[in-house]
Amino acid sequence: MNVHSTVWRSISRLQYLYPNEVNQICQRIGISPSLLAGHNLTLPLTLFLNFFIEAEDIFDDDLFSIKYARMAQIRPNYSEILGMISLYSPNLIESFNLVNSYINLELDGIDISLIQKTNVVDIRFVANAAIEHASLYENLCMSIFATFIKSLHHPIDKLTTKTTTKQATNVVRSLFHCPIQFKANHTAIILTNEVSLKQNPTANPKLISLLEIMAKEKITQKANEGNIVNRLEDIYNSYEDRYSNINITETSNLLGLSINTLRRELSKRKTTFRQTLNNFKLKKAKSMLASNYSVKRVAYSLGYTEPSAFVRWFINQAKQTPKEYKKEVTRQ
What we know:
By secondary structure, this protein is an alpha+beta fold. It has 2 domains: 63-221, no CATH class; 228-331, Arc Repressor Mutant, subunit A, CATH 1.10.10. It contains 17 helices and 7 strands. The protein is elongated, with a radius of gyration of 23 Å. The protein starts with a strand and ends with a helix. The mean pLDDT is 83.
C-alpha cells in the first residue's frame, strides 16, 4: 500500500515550518529531505507511518499524529482533488461521502464512514486491518480532515481516538478548539447535525462534477501504473534536477523492496536498474532538446557538472550527439 504525492507534499509544508526536525526524521527513516519537494511522489505506506513514529520522538509529542495537519497548516485546496471536493461540496455530509469514493487516490487502505445519530454525525476513519500501526494511520487521516473542517470555519464537537496520551487533554483543545476522547472504540470527528448539514456558501455543483470526472480518470490511470518500471520512473521524476542523487539503495527503500527483490523484478522484464534510469534520463534529455533547451542546460538539469560528460553519455545512449538530435527533430 502507498501514500501518494499530495499527502507527501503536506510533509514538505511541515518541513518548511520545522526544517531541522523534519530533516532529522528523514535521516532516521533513510530518505533524502530534498525528495519531499518532488511533484510526483508515491512511497510505501510503511515509510509514511515510520515518519510519524520518529516524529513523535523528535518533537517529543505522543499526540503528534493528531496535531500534524494543523501544525503543517494544510488547507483544502492544497490536496488537489480531495481538497477541492471538500471545499466546493454543498455541505460536509456530501463532502465526506464524495471524498470516501476517491480517497484511495491519495491514501491507500483507509475508509471513511458516516454514522448519523439523533443530534450528531460521526465521521469515522477505519484503516485496513493488515496495516501495522493502524491507529496511527487513522489519527493522521483524521488530522487532515479535521484541519479541512476548521479551514472552512466549521466547529468540531469532539475528536475520538483509540490511542492514549501522557499529556493533558487541554493541549489538544488548543489546536482544534474541541475536547478529545482517548481510548475510544473508533477514530472519529464528531459534528453536530446542524454543522454537518450547513449549506456551504462556496458550493459549486458544476466544479464538483468536473472534479468527479478527473478523479475517475485518475483512478483508471492508477490502475494501469502497477508496473515496476512505471513506479521507478515516478520516483526518478520526483528528483527533478537532482538525478545524480538517484541510487538503487534509496530507490528500493522508497519502493518498499529489498535491493535483491528490485533487481529480480527488473530481471523478469529483461532490464536492470541502470537501464531504466538511463532510459528515463534519455527521454528527459530528448524532451528538453526538442523544446529547444541548450545542451548545457540539459546537462545541468540531468545532474552533470560538465556538459562534455553529458554529451559522451548521450552519444553512448542515442548513437548521435545532442546537437544532431536537435537538428533531426527540427527537420521533422
